[in-house]
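Exercise 7. Given the components listed, write out the predicted structure of the assembled complex. Treat all entries as one system.
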Amino acid sequence: MGAVPVWLRERRSGVGRPAERSRAEVTAAAIALADREGLAAVSMRRVAAELGTGAASLYRYVDSRDDLLDLMTDEVAAAYELPPPGPWLPGLLEVCRQGRELMRRHAWLPELVLTRSALGPHGTDLLEQVLEILAGHPADVGRKLEAFAVMNALTAALTLSELDVGARQRQGAYLAHAVAAGRHPHLTAALTGGSPVPAPHFEDTISRVLVGLLGE
Amino acid sequence: MGAVPVWLRERRSGVGRPAERSRAEVTAAAIALADREGLAAVSMRRVAAELGTGAASLYRYVDSRDDLLDLMTDEVAAAYELPPPGPWLPGLLEVCRQGRELMRRHAWLPELVLTRSALGPHGTDLLEQVLEILAGHPADVGRKLEAFAVMNALTAALTLSELDVGARQRQGAYLAHAVAAGRHPHLTAALTGGSPVPAPHFEDTISRVLVGLLGE
DNA sequence: CTCATTCGGGAACGGTGTTCGCGAACACCG
DNA sequence: CGGTGTTCGCGAACACCGTTCCCGAATGAG
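Answer.
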């Protein structure tokens, strides 16, 4: 054990006292809690309380908190409704659009996707679909797998900065200070040039990146 | 306060007992500790012990642990040695190449860059340089700023997965299982097709993404 | 009914970030 | 020199945290 992911350490069954809950129930409770109060609130004690049980009991279903986080991520990935076959670019864009939607619905997701890229059953299904969308594409396997990774990471990173208004405010505060200090001419020109900075749209950005990666 | 970043909450001075340490010293101790034992080891108590002092003392230099993490990130960004003026693509590639090198030297950096994108003085200098490199480029300001964000996020994400061998192993273990189960034809074809999957190189990937984003 | 086996979970261990408050150390002022 | 205002250092405490131990309870099999 150690190099073996959560999903392979399934519950054996048969003899003994039957469990009162399931891994899915624990995962759902954790997701509900994270949706309501953020990732930081997902502690073993809080999740257990959500289920009306004790913290130690959770370790019957999960080896560690990190395992639970992986389960949460993969569980959400079950909600992808994959697009019908068609040209690859619109197909991948739709996947990204849905990913962004999932992350907006679960504001804790981007952080998990970025810091622990764990492929569970649903994540694997998604990868399979992406490979199917790219089936006719001439790029080699390595590049396709990389496109998948870049898609996910970029969607998460862009959605995260989109959601984290606190960070944007602090950033703005410091940039304003830097401009006022006067030692950053290009930055000053960029930030004071006429209208408020036009923000590129998510789909446009992802689209350009994908085209750059996989060709027209 | 709250929307005001660490760097603007500078130490006022003059009267009173002089401080025995400096913010820079605290930051350096935290970086040394993180380099040696990882980000998880950077607790207020451990950093304080590194300096031979008590945990509570650190709060004279920093408002919270998160502030300290931001200081660490920005401090490392001081090490960029910016390329001489020239065509924009090689210039940006050099910036990314150096970013990757910094992240390999400080394995805790990618996580911080991905989850808390805080621009401090050195990060702002870097942004200024990137804007200078792009000074002659016809793209509008929004797209240039976005290119900066994408560059950073992608460099961090790629370097992180490069460094995190544990995750790659677990991933491999589960993918092997999925292939064995037989319900993922494209995935199976991709993973069993001839030689080991050819991994695209970092600079090539970043280059394609930048060209997609900013044009040839 | 016995028994191996599993589950539930209170209690405890060794951590964590942060706050409180007090004594000490200094710069300035009279 | 003696206050005095102000800051610094930091032990102690608070409210948590993840995880492990261990024992009693529950169960299905024989």
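Discussion: Chain B touches chain A through 64 residues (CB under 8 Å). The two ends of chain B are 44 Å apart (CA to CA).
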